[in-house]
Amino acid sequence: MEDFIQVFPRIAFRINMRYFVIAGMTFLIFYVFFKKKYKKDKIQTLFPGISDYKREVFFSLISMTIFAGIATLVFTVFRPYTELYPKISDYGWSYYVFSIVLMVFVHDFYFYWTHRIMHHPLLYRHVHLVHHKSTNPSPWTAYAFHPIEAIVEAGILLVIAFLVPAHFSAILLFFLLQIIYNVYGHLGFELYPKNTHKHPIGKWLNTSVSHNQHHQFFEGNYGLYFTIWDRLMGTLRTDYDEQFESVTNYEKKSDV
Fold this sequence. Notes:
Layout: H1 2-33, H2 50-75, E1 84-85, H3 93-118, H4 121-132, H5 147-163, E2 166-167, H6 168-185, H7 208-217, H8 228-233, H9 240-248, H10 250-255
Parallel strand pairs: 1-2
Helix pairs in contact: 1-2, 1-6, 2-5, 3-5, 3-6
């Protein structure tokens, strides 16, 4: 218990800093300072209101407290039972890099299926609806979860800690990549270039358009990093290609 009390503030600070720096800087760039410059990349024409931002930050603070609590348990109480290893040399640098890639793919699988479960009518109405109140998401939406959903989201750390041999710093890098891509997914602007959705590799990447559609229409496009599971399970929206082309067709936009 003493270790938990000592470690929790450090982890909570790290998680909050990661969120506020990345989401905050992104918000300032796209929603404040260069709003007009990037207008052509906006997926939905309108911008969220102040009340939306306040709600998102409020629930994000709750979520991050839960994330910090579960992470502290993993790194203190549960650590002797996990696959975490102390020295990079224990597995080598090649595995170190591979472990981060593996964590991304494991998380994508975990996120897709837990996300689909969250869309069960009972869970959606009482839990997932908090996140879906952001029908026009912003960078602040990334962690705006109901407390129960926040626990489920934090569950990926438990899966990784108990199943994937990982160095602590590799986990930190993985979660840094996670928040960056999470913020991009909720950005409300598309950053990938035109025709990415048709590229042999690009078509497997989850784009901001894809996740924005999920928030706007509530169904389909359940993935996080990739469209792999959406394509395999037939849950990629049929209008995804059309909307991606519309959003990235700058020539057509300039004529409007």
